[in-house]
């Protein structure tokens, strides 16, 4: 268990080393120089995602009271949010680098799965804060909801190697098409998807479809292992179905961390840049906690008692 100062110091040193080894492109920006360095912004952005902070405002109040000595240049909350969003791509790259440090590129398979994130009450009228981005969809956890659909690729140990966002109504197959295509041919505007898996993708039957899977294998080099539909003509032996289901259990644990340990289920974003930045920070924090636990000789997914709050 680490105290807060030790946790922040360790994360800052790790982030600063990463920023020096992988400098982000420098873009000309008008106005005075930022009051915080990129490493400081990213460190605070990761720390802000812990679920002990009910909202972004709660984190900022805590930072003003407790972290001002360590971060004397802490600006106004709105300016800090702008600085954090400016580092969104770098945070995505940090999460992928941490996943590679956790041996993500040597895994025999990755688990590909999606889940719903509500951004507002689906019964409310008007278009809300995210028109054209959030809409009405259905998932097994929430039922009908208004929000976004999140897809993640996860290693057997629980590290997140890539993720993506789409409207809640997006089905798994077209979502996987975009995700796998972006992994095969990287796009500068989609750094969050990460690198292609070295092995197979283990999925549920929402991704099934012989022609689609053949297309993904031929064109993207992505081979999916998907159990057949219960009412289909193809049947797997019960032992094989149980084995695949056991392989996929890790993704449920990972999604629970994002939703509850890191407050994703309580987010109410107002624009796409905001939710993308927060999602990138949560994924990077998730991989950071795994990296820290590995260095401390602890269970990689033991997040609850990592910090002595």
Q: Can you count the helices?
A: 9
Structural class per helix/strand content? alpha/beta
Total E-strand runs: 6
What is the helix content? 40-55%
Oligomer: single chain
Give the rounded overall mean pLDDT. 92
Rg (C-alpha, Å): 20 Å
Distance between the termini: 10 Å
Strand content: 5-15%
Largest sheet: 6 strands, mixed
Output the helix-strand order. Answer: HHHHHEEEEHEHEHH
Shape: globular
Sequence stretches where pLDDT stays below 50 over 5 or more residues: none
SSE topology:
Elements: H1 4-21, H2 38-47, H3 56-66, H4 77-86, H5 88-101, E1 109-120, E2 135-139, E3 143-154, E4 160-167, H6 172-184, E5 200-202, H7 210-220, E6 224-225, H8 238-261, H9 272-296
Parallel strand pairs: 1-5, 5-6
Antiparallel strand pairs: 1-3, 2-3, 3-4
Describe the structure.
The structure is a single chain. This protein is an alpha/beta fold and 309 residues long. The protein has a domain at 108-266. It has 9 helices and 6 strands. The chain has helices at residues 4-21, 38-47, 56-66, 77-86, 88-101, 172-184, 210-220, 238-261, 272-296, and strands at 109-120, 135-139, 143-154, 160-167, 200-202, 224-225. Strands 1, 2, 3, 4, 5 and 6 form a 6-stranded mixed sheet that branches. Strand 2 and strand 3 form a beta hairpin. The longest helix is centred in the C-terminal third of the chain and has 25 residues, at 272-296. The protein is globular.
